[in-house]
Amino acid sequence: MASACAQARRLARDGVGLPIAVNVAPQQFREPGFVATVALLEEARVDAAQVELEITERTVMDDVATGSEVLSALRRLGVRIVLDDFGTGYSSLSYLTRLPIDVLKIDRSFVQSPGSCSRTEAVTAAIISLARGLGIEVVAEGVETETQLAFLNQHGPVRLQGFLLAGPMPEADLAGWLTERPPHARPFPQ
Predict the structure, then answer these.
(1) Mapping DSSP to helix (H, G, I), strand (E, B) and coil, where does residue 5 land?
(2) pTM of the model
């Protein structure tokens, strides 16, 4: 968290206001002091709304009552909650109406082969539609081809993550990479 906050401050200083996503391990999520650790964002001088905590659906579903309490406490801090790997675990759609989720992150297995499996396409389209109906944003993981992009755009809007946009890069290259892209092709609005 401290490293992500430091990176967010540097990017903001360089004029790049991107959300920072932090993967949360199940053990971290279950620690009694986890919410207090996240509350240190104020001391780190980082806007909590720019921080997205990625939590797998399995982590939340293991103990729904406690998971719901932790998510609600995190939401009160102002951070955004991302339900990661959606659709790969034992998700219950009813929890989407009760849990404070800002973003569903569709697992890459749902976007890898558009055109090859109509059932997978139907599930992906349904997830996007369901999320949109609930006012939840969608991120599609593993977007690598124009075909995948076209399929997602048919059902969007979705945020994209994958090698079609760019591969991993050093932080020092990020601001330049974003500046070179036309506004409509940036992964996040500026």
Answers:
(1) helix
(2) 0.86
